[in-house]
Amino acid sequence: MAPVETRRACRPAWNAPAGRTLLALLLLALLAGPAHAGVARVDEVACIGTTVSDLDRSVAFYVRLLGFLRRGEREEVGPELERLTGVFAARTRTATLSLGSECLELTEYVAQRGRPIAADARSNDREFQHIAIVVSDMDLAYARLRSARVEHASSGPQELPAWNAAAGGIRAFYFRDPDRHVLELIWFPPGKGAQRWQATATNPPLTLGIDHTAIGVVDTEAALAFYRGQLGLEEAGHSENWGTEQEQLNAVRGAHLRITQVRARRGPGIEFLEYLAPRDGRPYPADERGNDLFHWHVRLVTSSGEAVLRSLRGAKASFIGLPGPPPPSPTLPIRFRDPDGHVLELVNP
Question: 37, 40, 221, 286: most buried, per Cβ within 10 A?
Answer without folding.
Answer: 40
